[in-house]
Design goal:
- 48% of the residues lie in helices and 17% in strands.
- It has 14 helices and 16 strands.
């Protein structure tokens, strides 16, 4: 070994402890982005991210949040995972214009560090049933009022316990549920709902450097300076379920599936509409496994399809068709009418009405076209021979043979008709025609 190589080796050995220490000191922050509804798919995504962060020694888990709300059951799973996490969790409501509404408010309050970007908002956490009714109680004592009151009380107790655990403003948290109160980032900071406002991820890390937070099993000091941000992506199946976990998407798949089956029913043998319709209904079935749905709403939609199809066979001048379309609207609007408390509802005017209107236009065209074809006189087959004129090839006494439409047919008549006389077909009886003398002939 040369003198120069030995010198380089000695220097490397001398620097090795510092290199190892520098590498050991390098930290990373795992990142998840939730920019849609809170549902079982997004809950599974976040819970897996917490588990990954605990296993790979992440300095923290950063959750960038922008959500209109979601299912309370999925929110409960997320909050439970966050409160039991041994890794610090930072919820950052971002980017500008984002909101942590309803379920998002619960998740933000449950974080070790709650932060918001300028131009964001938080709150409006009142429980909403899937039928769209809010948390306010009405005067009468109906079953729905009792269920709404129970949901509100449970939700208030839930958010109160979260706020107390994280030392946040309990009074505001309860108002967010009871009165659907919502605030912007500056007021949220002033009220003690969040810990800080940061315009960017870098500024957020700078403000949090060295801060001590309480996690499951003890406390942690945040070491975020120069930390590498490692995004955690959804896997393919979770991404698919997250896409399907929308009442609007589910309703559109149901409508597309029923339309495909309707086309196949009216035009057998086309195959493609039927296959596409079945695939859409299968995807809708996956959505129904994720979302709380009502069998009543689905049955009402199927009744609507049956009524629209029946219009083809019964001359009701559009009555059955109109009732069927009304069933689609009623069934679609109640498709997710379940006791489950949720902010996930079907957008009636922006999604359901246009979808049903499109279905109605297409189905109406089909009904009119089929109705006209059924009312038109037959132009093919033996039945279209009724009313045709021909001549007798032999005398009909009362049986004989006639010539009509370029063909010779056996025929019978109720009177004697001479050979070569004109005849008119009045009926087709199997392979024999019944004829008479033409009227006025």
């Amino acid at each position: 070994m040369s003198r120069r190589a030995r010198a380089a080796r000695i220097v490397l050995l001398a620097l090795l402890p510092w290199l190892l220490a520098a590498d050991a000191g390098a930290s990373h922050v795992n990142l998840v982005v939730i920019d849609g509804s809170i549902n079982p798919a997004s809950a599974d995504y976040l819970l897996k991210a917490i588990e990954t962060s605990e296993n790979d020694g992440a300095a923290a888990l950063l959750v960038e949040l922008d959500t209109p709300g979601g299912l309370l059951a999925a929110t409960k799973d997320i909050v439970q995972g966050m409160l039991g996490s041994s890794v610090p969790i930072i919820v950052y409501v971002a980017p500008a214009g984002a909101w942590a509404a309803s379920a998002g408010a619960f998740i933000t309050l449950a974080a070790n560090i709650a932060a918001m970007a300028p131009g964001t908002s938080i709150g409006a956490a009142s429980p909403i049933s899937a039928s769209g009714s809010g948390g306010e109680r009405e005067a009468d004592n109906t079953r729905s009022d009792v269920a709404s009151e129970k949901a509100e009380k449970f939700t208030i107790a839930f958010i109160e316990s979260i706020a107390k655990e994280r030392n946040r403003n309990v009074d505001w948290a309860m108002r967010a549920v009871r009165e659907a109160e919502a605030v912007g980032q500056d007021e949220a900071l002033e009220l003690g709902v969040i810990d800080l406002v940061a315009p960017s991820r870098e500024v957020l890390f700078e403000k949090l450097e060295g801060r001590e937070v309480k996690v499951a099993g003890g406390t942690r000091v945040l070491d975020l300076e120069g930390a590498e941000v490692r995004p955690i992506e959804m896997d393919g199946m979770t991404r698919l379920f997250n896409f399907l976990a929308s009442p609007d998407i589910a309703v559109l798949f149901v409508m597309a599936g029923l339309l495909g089956l309707y086309i196949e029913f009216n035009q057998p043998g086309m195959v493609l509409p039927g296959v596409a319709g079945v695939l859409c209904l299968i995807l809708a079935g996956f959505a129904f496994q994720i979302l709380p749905f009502s069998w009543v709403g689905l049955v009402v939609m199927l009744i609507g399809l049956a009524l629209v199809a029946a219009e083809v066979f019964f001359a009701t001048y559009g009555v059955l068709f109109a009732i069927g379309i009304a069933c689609f609207l009623l069934g679609g609007s109640t498709l997710f009418d379940m006791p489950e408390v949720s902010d996930l509802t079907v957008s009636f005017w922006s999604v359901l009405v246009p979808a049903v209107a499109g279905f109605a236009i297409f189905a109406g065209i089909v009904v009119v076209a089929i109705g006209r074809s059924m009312a038109r006189a037959q132009t093919a087959g033996v039945s279209e021979m009724v009313g045709m004129l021909g001549r007798s090839d032999t005398a009909l006494t009362p049986e004989g043979r006639i010539y009509v439409r370029g063909e010779y047919w056996n025929a019978t008549a109720d009177e004697t008709i001479g050979a070569g006389d004109p005849v008119e077909v009045v009926a087709v009886e199997g392979m024999r025609l019944r004829v008479r003398r033409p009227v006025g002939g």
